[in-house]
Amino acid sequence: MSGAGLTILSTLVVIGLLVFVHELGHFLAAKWAGIYVHRFSLGLGAPIRALSFRRGETEYSVSWLPLGGYVKMASALEDAGSALEGGQAGVEVPPDRMFEAKPVWVRMVVILAGVVMNGLFAWLVFSGLVYFKGIPIFPSTVVAAVDSAGLPPGAESLRQLQYGDRIVSIDGAPVSSWQAVQRSWLAEGDSVRIGLDGGRVVSVPRGVEAERRQAVRAIRPWLPPVIGTVVAGRPGAKAGLAEGDTVVTFDGEPIREWRDMVSRIEARADQPVTLVVGRAGGRVTITATPAPEDAVDSAGVKRTVGRLGIAGPLIPDAREPVGLGAALAAGGRQTVFIGGQIVGLVRGMFAGRVSTRELGGPIAIGVAAGESVRRGAEEYLMFMAAISVNLAVLNLLPIPILDGGQFLFLLAEGVTRRPVTGRVREWLTMAGLVAIVMLMVLAFSNDIRRLLGF
Fold this sequence. Notes:
With 454 residues, the chain is of the alpha+beta class. The chain is built from eleven helices and 19 strands.
C-alpha cells in the first residue's frame, strides 16, 4: 500500500473506532435507562441503505457524512439537528421512554457515558500494552547534571554528582535503570547511599516522602542527543534531519546531551544553525532555521523559542515485566497524565499563554496516524488511545452541542427544577454551533499552514 493510502486508511480506522466507542457509551447507557433509541449511526446525515440494518426498535447505520456519529434517542426535541441526523424516525414512542421523561441524574449518566467510554478505552489500551509488553524503562543510570536550586534542605551533598557519573547501586543494591534508581531512592529509611562507578559513595538524608521526591527529581539523567521523531513539514524535516540522527555538534560546539541541544535550538529562533549529525553512512552537515513559537516556562513566563519540529530523545527499547495490577495502575496514570496535558493546553489557549496555532484538525490527525502506524502496532495503539483521551476532554467543553454543554443544561435543570427550553436553548445551541465551526475552520487552516510550511 502506498504511503498516502496507508495514512488515509489508518486515519479512517482511528476516527471510526473512536467515534464508535464514544457513541457506544451513549447507546449502552440509553438502553440501560430504558430510553427508546431510533438510530445508532457512524457518520452524520442520511444513512447509507446498503450499510444499514434494523434490530428490534433500533436502526444501525453508516451515514454519508463521515464526521462523527450519533445515537438518536426519542426526545421531545427531535426536530433539533434533524438535518445532521438524517431526519426524524416517525415512530410512536411511549411517553415514559422519552429522554426527557427520565430523572435528571439518569440523563446526566447518558450524556457523560460517551466521554467515560473514551476514557475507559484509553485506559484499557495503555494497560494492555504495559501488561503484554512491560513498562518501558530507561536502561541507563548516568548523571547529566544536578539542579542545585531544586535540592531540598539537607541534600546539598548531591552537588558532588558530576556529568558522566554512573550510579551503580542504591543502599548497596545494584541498579541498572533510572526507574530502579527512583524506586530505591523513594523507599523508606534514614539515608540514601549512592554507589558510583569507581567506588565513590555519596550519602544524603532521605527525609519525608516529599523531600525524597524533590531530591530524586533534582538529579537529571543523561539523555542521548539522538533524534526520535521528525515532524513532516517542519524546519528539521525540510533541512534533512532524520529519525536516529545523533547530533554531534551545534554551530561547531560539541553536544553532550539531549537537553543541551534543545536549549541551544530554543535560543536561536529565526536564526540559521548548523548541525553535524552522525548516521549509518557517516557524518552529515545540516543547516536549518528554527521556527519561532510562543512557549511558557516553568515560572509561567511567556517567551519566544526556536523549534525545529524534532522530538526525542530516541532511547533503546527496554522493558520491565509487571503484573496485571501494576499494568492497570500504569495505564490509569498514563490516561490521567495525557488528560491533564490536554486540559492544560486548552486552558492555556483560552488564557492566551498557548498559541492557537497549536490546534490541529483532521489533517494533522491523519499525518500523525500515518506516522504512528509506520512505526509499528504499539505506536499506533498508543496514538489511538491518546486521541481517545483528546476526544473525551474536548467533548467536556461547555459548548451546547457537545456533551459538556448538554451536561450544563441538565445541571441547570437540576438546580432550577425546570428544563432549559425555548429561545434560551436555541440561542445557546446556535452559539455553540458557531463556536464549533470556528474551531474547525481554525484547525483546518492550521493544518493547511503546516502542510505549506507557513
